Automatic annotation (TrEMBL):
One Gene Ontology term of the molecular function aspect: zinc ion binding
Superkingdom as given in the UniProt entry: Eukaryota
Pfam families: zf-MYND
Any one cellular-component term (Gene Ontology): nucleus
Official protein name in the record: MYND-type domain-containing protein
UniProt keyword annotation of Zinc present: yes
PANTHER family: PCDC2 PROGRAMMED CELL DEATH PROTEIN 2 -RELATED (PTHR12298), PROGRAMMED CELL DEATH PROTEIN 2 (PTHR12298:SF4)
Length: 216
């Protein structure tokens, strides 16, 4: 006879944004991960879909400490998933990346005592140790070529963010090469007359010159 297992069910509910930061060891769904071990983080290669070889996105994390083990006083399981529906197949988990992170009570990142549930100015998170991808929250070694202010793990996630959000907020990097910025603005101007010339093409056009000119 199989041994009985205890199963805990949880429900997703809204909460204060600051309570989802790493120092509160949250369980959360969506957004970007609140990393437990802040340094080092998983590489972009470790967060790549094993089916299509494209970068995955953060799905959820569950805080599951094990008080019987000193090295797992804090323990969190992170799950990343591929955005490509074709990678999701029955009885196959190759489109999922599951990571376990654990820390002892006394560690290099967090105090031993529970934190006060109030916002703080200098938040404790992984961005103190590395640039983070705005889309998945992983290591982001690449930056926006136009403003240089936003980081990404890959060209795929840069394109996703550009279409969804960053296109509307991106500002000119004043320290960049003005000639290439002029090319970018000129392409954007002519796109207003050509309905079949999407802005994304203009961005790729600019980025092509950006890479040749090595602005960064």
């Amino acid at each position: 006879m199989a041994a009985e297992r205890n199963v805990e069910l949880g429900y997703v509910e809204e909460t204060e944004k600051f309570l989802l930061k790493s120092r509160f060891f949250p369980s959360k769904v969506g957004g970007v991960p609140a990393w437990l071990s802040l340094n080092p983080l998983p590489s972009a290669e470790e967060l790549t879909c094993r089916v299509c070889s494209k970068p995955t996105v953060f799905l959820l994390q569950v805080y599951a400490p094990d008080s019987s083990k000193t090295f797992a006083f804090h323990r969190t399981v992170f799950i990343f998933i591929c955005r490509n529906d074709n990678c999701c197949k029955a009885n196959c988990a190759d489109n999922l990346i599951v990571l376990r992170s654990q820390l002892p009570k006394v560690n290099d990142f967090f105090r031993s005592q529970p934190p006060a549930e109030v916002p703080i100015e200098n938040e404790i998170d992984a961005s103190k140790y590395a640039k983070l991808c705005r889309v998945c929250g992983g290591v982001g070694p690449k930056t926006c070529g136009k403003c240089g202010c936003v980081s990404y793990c890959s060209k795929e996630h840069q394109a996703v963010d550009w279409k969804a959000y960053h296109k509307r907020e991106c500002s000119t990097n004043k320290t960049g090469n003005y000639f290439f910025q002029y090319i970018y603005n000129l392409a954007g101007f002519f796109s207003t007359f050509w309905e079949d010339s999407p802005w994304l093409w203009n961005w790729e056009f600019y980025r092509h010159f950006h890479e040749i000119g090595k602005i960064n």
